[in-house]
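Letters spell out the chain; the tokens describe the backbone. To illustrate:

===
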Amino acid sequence: MPRSRLLALFALLFLPLFLFHRPLLLGEAFVPADLLSYLSPWKSVYPPTEDSPRWNVLRFDGITQFYPWRVEATRQVQAGRLPVWNEHQFAANGGTPLLANSQSAPLYPLHVLFYLVPLRYIWYVFGLVSALHLLIAASGLYVLLRAYGLRRGSCVLGAAVWTLSAPIICWLSLPSFLGVACWLPWLLLLIRVAHTDAGTRTGRLATLGAGGVAGTLILAGHLQIALYTLLAALLYAAFWGFLSFRSGHVSVPRWIGGVLLVVTLAVCFAAPQVLPAIQLSRISHRAVTEKSIGLYNANNGSALPPRSFVTFLIPDFYGHPNHGFHWNNSDLRDASGRFGNNYAEWALYTGILPLLLALFAIATPGMRAPPPPILGEPEVGKNRPPTPVSPPARGNSVPAAPPG
């Protein structure tokens, strides 16, 4: 293996290990269980101290929702049952749906790791699965950037910037977010290959793989992030479709057929979990709440305000909840009377150096990425057929070696 490839592999493996060395190597549980100290009955035994993390209602979901869901799904699977119903939540009323609750994600392929360990060790799998999601995200973006001809160092930097950005880091304790988002670069890569290698075995396999990856990210549980991810993939496919139509490499009916095949595969793969979720959504609070302009304005009020753009450069400009004060928090209002939001909801920061490098690349023509390949022609160094050699004319002899 070339040294540069080996260094890139080491860097990609280092990223999740750097963030998760304490859960993976030191035996710490990657669940926000310390927030239980703010509630009874736990606070009577382990009350919060000055060193305790500050209360964060969004992170609290990690211990009061995701942890019980994973435990209950594991308990039922290990007992040989399909995890359809959770009889322990609202037990007085008969329980609540488990399979139909999409974020419990009992059919997500990576969650088989929960089902393989004893219940007393399930806390360890939370850190393991989160680290694997981070590795999937980093490696996927690395391979996607390599497909565009970037050098290995640039690809590693791009993978590090994305996986260490505030939107990813702030949502790690709620595993369904990254469980969906980590598959985006792999989906984009397969879409690219399906177009550049259309009509070949590689292109057909990429189309099938895109359907499988799309179904997998839906099964990861966060349907809102899944929608955003699939919309981004559709726009990316439309871009490559436009290049294909313009070059005559792929016809419109063939492109539409490929898109329908990917959608069909994704729907069939995710249907056992998504169809019950759709049925449950009909009686959710969003479905039964009366629609009004006041409700619309309230929902629209949670959109990203212009004042938060400063956090592109200074992430803690308004403070940080872990430091005891966050001026932009959901229970505070600004001068106009508008509420803020949780720190993670409006997290934007990717780093000063990446922004400077991006501006430098845009301003420097020689630093820009190479243009997409001309469809229908082999890329340089890739599957280029050998130059044909014409056979000698009959009656003429071919010397075995050049004379002299």
Observations:
- The first helix runs from residue 3 to 25.
